[in-house]
Amino acid sequence: MTQPLRVAVTGAAGNISYSLLFRLAAGDCYGSNQPVILQLLEIPPAMKALEGVVMELQDCAFPLLAGIETSDDPKVAFRGANQIFLVGSRPRSKGMERNELIAVNGPIFVGQGRAIQEHAAKDVFVVTVGNPCNTNAFIAMKNAPEVPRSRFTAMTRLDQNRAVAQLALKTGKPVSAVENLIIYGNHSSTMFPDFANAKVAGQSAVQAAGDAAWLQGPYLKTIQQRGAAIIEARGASSAASAAAAAIDHMRDAWFGTGERCVSMAVPSDGSYGIPDGTMFSLPVRCKGKGQWEIVKGASHDAFAKAKIAETLKELQDEAAVVKDLCN
Ligand code: NAX
Q1: Sequence-distant contacts of 299-307: CB under 8 A, at least 24 apart
Q2: pTM above the 0.85 mark?
Q3: Which residue out of 10, 16, 76 has the highest number of ligand 1 atoms within 8 Å of its CB and is therefore the one to mutate?
Q4: Contact residues for 135 (Cβ-Cβ < 8 A; gap 6+)
Q5: Domain 5-154 - what CATH class?
Q6: What does the alpha-carbon distance between residue 268 and residue 201 come to, in Å, rounded to a whole number?
Q7: pLDDT tens across 146-180, in order?
Q8: Class of the CATH domain delimited by 157-320
Q9: Which atom of ligand 1 is nearest to the CA of 236?
């Protein structure tokens, strides 16, 4: 009998989790032979709603779901956790500036980083989804100095998936024909999909799209503004697609990607001129069980370099806002 994996999820009564938890319990992330124990964290006002989610999980009678634990204390929810999805954070309210959001959510990740260091399993691997996810992951990492920093990542896979899908639509090819489309930088409207190094059915994406101006203009804008467009259309932010991307991120980290390159915000090692330790989305190859390496050697033209500099500047400004939380 395979030992169950302990999978902690924060914000477990929220919208993304309402899709994510059921897919985790169904075996979509860790495979059809791997039992999981879900360790669910919420804040006290949401514990009642979480009870309802737990009832629904039970009602699915998932054969791989070996247990469900709930708590409003990260020290309890992260106890022995091997895999952690940091989804919970306060959403941006109307009129709230990005810096205000950062200041409100930052302290959550101080406590969670410490709880990960003290209570999670030795092999813990973390994806941060709650926004601003790069900076929240950075804060958690800084507050868990005894955990290898490579265990902390943030999610830009939804941006990658959006970029792949839009390119497939434009070229009339299946999404499976699009390769090496990597997101650089911050998960925000400054992130940069590096279309110049992408391929569609073996051809350069620029040739396949046949329209460099479209890639630099409307395409880039569509990807960068996609989250806002979904809120405008649906009246709520991306949830099922965000959960699907979180599964993609963690499944790739767990099983490995072989030669395939994926986008993950990871602590930089100085590659591509990104200062060491910056939580920056880069091309990554996963080797399985949470091991990964940054893929070096992609070349960038002046347009790409300017975009990468812009998103780096934004992340450095965010780091300045949370400096006192990272000591
Ligand atoms: P919801 O507001 O539906 O759910 C968030 C949940 O987190 C709530 O149930 C809340 O009670 C809980 N929560 C708040 N503070 C907490 C804490 N300290 N500990 C544990 N739980 C806490 O938001 P949802 O739509 O699920 O989105 C969650 C986060 O994902 C948001 O920050 C959102 O901005 C972010 N997103 C990130 C994306 C990405 O690509 N990285 C895309 C989708 C999404 O926008």
Answers
A1: 299/197, 300/194, 300/196, 300/197, 300/272, 301/196, 303/196, 303/216, 304/184, 304/192, 304/194, 304/196, 307/184, 307/185, 307/190, 307/192
A2: yes
A3: 16
A4: 102, 106, 279, 315, 318, 319, 321, 322
A5: alpha beta
A6: 30
A7: 999 999 999 999 999 999 999 999 999 999 999 99
A8: alpha beta
A9: 25
